[in-house]
Specification:
Layout (H helix, E strand, L loop, with lengths): L11 E4 L2 E4 L2 E6 L6 H15 L3 E6 L18 E3 L13 H18 L7 E5 L5 H5 L4 E6 L3 H4 L5 H18 L4 E4 L2 H10 L8 E2 L6 H6 L4 H9 L5 E6 L9 H13 L2 H5 L1 E7 L6 H16 L6 E5 L3 H10 L2 E4 L8 H8 L4 E4 L4 H4 L6 E4 L4 H13 L1 H18 L2 H16 L2
Family: Belongs to the glycosyltransferase group 1 family.
Pathway: Protein modification; protein glycosylation
Keywords: Endoplasmic reticulum, Glycosyltransferase, Membrane, Transferase, Transmembrane, Transmembrane helix
Length: 426
């Protein structure tokens, strides 16, 4: 569990009896939206700032209506460069243009910006690493998942198009001074994918900024739910981006199955809230949102589903406090920060028995890990938790204890700073 490199410069403050180092750190990230990868880098920035380091972001896109509050309110300064470079050409070449945007951002940061970093932390796109090395900052790369595995299969032409990109991803990833992955699952995938690399990544589990969670006020959404929903409603919550790989339709199928498994009284009190990242620039977000609305209508459960697009941080916290159960539907998720957030709010989590959730959720202790990817299997576990309040509350308490013991923000911050101090002495 490490995360930040540092190079010692004149920013060292020598204190009698000890040496305290203030390091200039830039986090280079493609798009500061509201996904799990963005939440991790924002939390890393907050952790490093709390330790006394000078931290800022450089990004190629920052939509003020689609970002985390800390990147908007000045908590962490953000510089946007290269947003004029297109994201695609006639809906093609997304990866190539993402590479170009990141190379441009890296070169701009090191050639034009006056506040040169001692350390650069980058993630998602590794192509910028050899350009960063020309200017000698220490480089940390955080691998959420190999990018080449996220690319959907296509034509033979696309296969040839990806060959040089995949090669460059492996070579440039290996040029980082330090590599982190987000889970044991991702570590195994990393080793199987980047077979030519000898560097050994360390696992740095994402955390959640618990102080931020604790300070959130009741949102207008929570007040609305209080007014419109029956007392003690069975609120089921799904939080994920509107992407097909997140398998959100599974939550709808599970809800449809519940109609036959719950008593009439419990069914009447049941509502599924589907909240997720939605970017109107992303065609899949728009299309999949419409697909899910249509699916709910076909299943006859439209009146039992509330769709929310890109809820605010306050609304998200309110949903986590208000719900009874979190349904987490992606298979083979690299890590998954939402289950941790729900567990911190003492909510049991139901997820597929694969990927990162196998490391965060303890089956029959903090929630249920389901082997089958079908609505009936998920629905049966939901019914157990709805009908057994003691089990639900016990799972919730166990979940919070697990988050505080293994995934706490303090532990995350301490390990980050430890790594910074170690690298600063090199």
């Amino acid at each position: 569990m490490d995360v930040c490199d540092t190079t010692v410069t004149i920013n060292q403050l020598i204190v009698i009896g000890q040496t305290k180092i203030m390091v200039k750190i830039t986090l280079l990230h493609p798009d500061l939206g509201i996904g799990g990868a963005e939440r991790l880098v924002v939390d890393a920035a907050l952790a490093l700032k709390k330790q006394g380091h000078d931290v800022n972001f450089v990004t190629t896109h920052h939509d003020h209506g689609h970002c985390f509050a800390e990147t908007l309110d000045g908590t962490i300064p953000v510089t946007v460069v290269g947003d004029w470079i297109p994201r695609h050409i006639f809906k093609k070449f997304y990866a190539l243009l993402a590479y170009i945007r990141m190379i441009y951002a890296a070169c701009y940061m090191l050639l034009v910006m006056s506040n040169k970093p001692d350390i650069v932390i980058c993630d998602l796109v590794s192509i910028c690493i050899p350009f960063l090395r020309l200017f000698r900052p220490k480089i940390i790369f955080y691998c959420h998942h190999p990018d080449q595995l996220l690319s959907t299969r296509g034509s033979l032409l696309k296969t040839f198009y990806r060959i040089p990109l995949n090669y460059l991803e492996q070579i440039t990833t290996g040029q980082a001074d330090k590599i982190f992955v987000n889970s044991c699952y991702t570590l195994e995938v990393f080793k199987k994918t980047f077979t030519k690399l000898t560097i050994q990544p360390d696992i740095l589990y994402p955390s959640i900024h618990t102080e931020f969670f604790d300070s959130q006020r009741i949102s207008s959404l929570e007040k609305t739910l209080d007014q419109k929903l029956p007392h003690n409603s069975n609120i089921l919550l799904s939080i994920n981006r509107y992407e097909r790989k997140k398998n959100l339709g599974l939550a709808l199928y599970a809800l449809a199955e519940l109609k036959n498994l719950l008593s009439t009284d419990e069914w009447n009190k049941t509502l599924l809230i589907m909240a997720g990242g939605y970017d109107k620039r992303v065609e899949e977000n728009v299309d999949h949102y419409m697909e899910l609305c249509g699916m709910a209508d076909e299943l006859g459960i439209s009146d039992k589903v509330l769709f929310l697009r890109s809820p605010s941080d306050n609304d998200k916290m309110s949903l986590l406090k208000y719900c009874k159960i979190l349904i987490y539907t992606p298979p083979n998720e690299h890590f998954g920060i939402v289950p941790l957030e729900a567990m911190y709010f003492e909510k049991p989590v139901i997820a597929h028995n694969s990927g990162g959730p196998r490391e965060t959720i303890i089956n029959n202790n903090t929630g249920f890990l389901i082997d089958e990817l079908n609505g009936q299997a998920f629905a049966q576990s939901i019914v157990k938790l709805i009908n057994d309040e003691t089990m639900r509350l016990t799972f919730g308490e166990n979940g919070k204890n697990r988050v505080m013991k293994i995934f706490s923000f303090d532990a995350f911050s301490e390990q980050l700073n430890k790594t910074v101090m170690q690298l600063s002495s090199l």
